[in-house]
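Below is how a single chain appears once it has passed through the pipeline. First comes the sequence as given, then the structure the pipeline wrote out for it. We keep one example in the README because the format questions we get most often are answered faster by looking than by reading.
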Amino acid sequence: MERREYRMTRRELQELERLSRPVTLSGLRWSPEAWKRRREDHWKALGEKYGFEWRTARPAPGKNRRCFTAVPLEEETDGNELDGYAEEHGG
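Resulting structure:
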């Protein structure tokens, strides 16, 4: 399965970092499930925008944090790509 390199915008990275921090609303913290769901939604949106399977995103070795690799949507995946960047960074 061929991987391709992608680069998110600064704003997209800032949003991902924001979603990776604990959030407090009126003194109440979001549950871990809510954090995970929000981060997954962010990765899904990036996947739709850039045309990759969001669960396959991984850091691009030797590149800055905005760069990552993933399997393009055109390629078939077996659904076992849950590791990597998305999981390490909140997906």
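The two ends are 21 Å apart (CA to CA).

See the next section for the split statistics.
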